[in-house]
Specification:
Elements lengths: L20 H13 L5 E2 L11 H12 L12 H15 L8 E4 L3 H11 L5 E6 L3 H10 L2 E6 L10 H7 L4 E7 L11 H14 L2 E5 L26 E6 L12 E4 L2 H14 L5 H12 L3 H22 L14 E2 L10 H10 L3 E2 L1 E2 L11 E4 L4 H18 L1
Helix pairs in contact: 2-9, 3-9, 4-5, 4-8, 10-12
Bound molecules: pyridoxal-5'-phosphate.
């Protein structure tokens, strides 16, 4: 076909952003096609295999004919397993009616923002932060209000900061702890103030808790904003299987929210994806109710890697790195190198053959930082540290 027909897109398409970690992957693959050996530290996915008992559950379900449409909000057994798991880990009661199952946690973001936010509303989101938040808030027509996360606050935010950003126009505040891209966590003092403000100004909070099991200082999961007074009816917990159970490619996630909102999110889902595959949901039940040792072993391994990365990065002149409390990212400060984050990320890709993401891919406040995902072997991480060091010494 010739390219003669001009596609006249709807205006709203100009408001939609993207996730650049996938672009970095494409550029890294192009280098590999030229015969270069690239170390991949750009993607946010565990390098572990999905535990065997979870795979077996999906295969058994497929073999027994679980190949049909399922209820839009999720099969009853998985909604119950998620409600039980969330009640136990967050220490607050949830019922299956609070749960909507989706193909990954990402659709919960899309559906919840579209269900709640529109013209004239303000939505506060973390900057730096997962780029899809700002993208979908823009798409919804609401005004995105960045909440700047600062290194000196451990990439959390202070009670004063959140107080200065919310008002009666605020419809939704998005938080993410442990946090992508920084690995930072929000203090309980700030969560408490946010909860107080949510009740006062009558807004909802979408709490992206997808990294809740990868929190190095907790035996269970960190305290959720949903547990503060008045917050169970104002919180959407976003969670999923991608990170905790190394199931990124399976596409299985969920939201736990007030039933009235769950009904509306389900209405959006029936207009979009109809349902989540039944055999995948069976795997989800196995993940939540089966042995948790694989999760614990993965988190221990991530802790070893985090410690090595933080030590190694701090030994490189011009780079400094605070110790993250969760997730599997470090967010080193590269301001002393005297170039923009984009330039540093490009130099490390093309001179050092280490693929990672510029801090500005996560918002304007990411300038001066780069994001490194340490979801890679200790051996590759050590080699990446060597390459970063030699590139910095050569180029800067
Ligand atoms: C902060 C955050 N939230 C949500 C997601 C979505 O994960 P998924 O759609 O694979 O469940 C990601 C994935 O990278 C993430 O980093």
């Amino acid at each position: 076909m010739s390219g003669a027909v001009e596609i006249k897109l709807a205006d709203r398409m100009s408001k939609l952003g993207t996730e650049t970690a996938f672009d970095v992957l494409v550029r890294a693959r192009a280098l590999e096609a030229e015969g270069k050996h690239v170390i991949h530290l750009q993607l946010g996915e565990p390098d572990f295999d999905t535990p065997q008992h979870i795979v077996d559950a999906a295969v058994d379900a497929l073999r027994s004919g679980d190949t049909h449409y399922t209820p839009t909000a999720g099969i009853p057994a998985l909604r119950k397993a998620i409600a039980d798991y969330t009640s136990e880990t967050r220490e607050i009661e949830f019922a299956p009616e609070h749960v909507v199952v989706t193909p990954g946690g990402k659709p919960i973001m899309f559906f919840v923002i579209l269900a709640l936010a529109g013209e004239g509303d303000e939505v506060v989101y973390p900057d730096p932060g997962f780029p899809i938040y700002q993208s979908v808030v823009n798409f919804s027509g609401a005004t995105p209000v960045p909440l700047e996360l600062k290194e000196e606050e451990g990439f959390g935010f202070s009670p004063d900061q959140i107080r200065s950003l919310v008002n009666d126009k605020t419809k939704l505040v998005i938080i993410n702890s442990p946090h992508n891209p920084t690995g930072g966590m929000i203090s309980e003092e700030s969560l408490e103030e946010l909860a107080r403000l949510a009740v006062k100004h009558d807004f909802m909070v979408m709490s992206d808790e997808i990294y809740s099991r990868i929190a190095y200082d907790y035996d269970t999961v960190p305290k959720s904003i949903s547990t503060y007074p008045g917050m169970r009816e104002r919180t959407i917990i976003l969670d999923g299987f991608s990170k905790t159970f190394a199931m990124t490619g399976w596409r299985l996630g969920y939201g736990v929210m007030p039933t009235k909102l769950a009904e509306q999110v389900t209405r959006l889902a029936v207009n979009c994806n109809s349902c989540t595959p039944g055999f995948i949901q069976q795997a989800g039940i196995a993940a939540l109710t089966g042995p948790q040792e694989p999760v614990e072993a993965m988190v221990e391994e991530f802790r070893r890697r985090r410690d090595m990365m933080v030590t190694g990065l701090n030994e490189i002149p011009g780079i400094s790195c605070i110790q993250p409390a969760g997730a599997f990212y470090v967010f080193p400060n590269v301001k002393q190198l005297g170039k923009t984050s984009d330039d540093v990320a490009n130099d490390l890709m093309y001179e050092g053959h280490v693929a990672l993401v510029s801090g500005t891919s996560f918002g304007a406040a990411g300038e001066g930082y780069i994001r490194i995902s340490y979801a890679n072997s200790m051996e590759n991480l050590q080699e990446a540290l060597n390459r970063i060091k030699s590139t910095v010494e050569r180029v800067y």
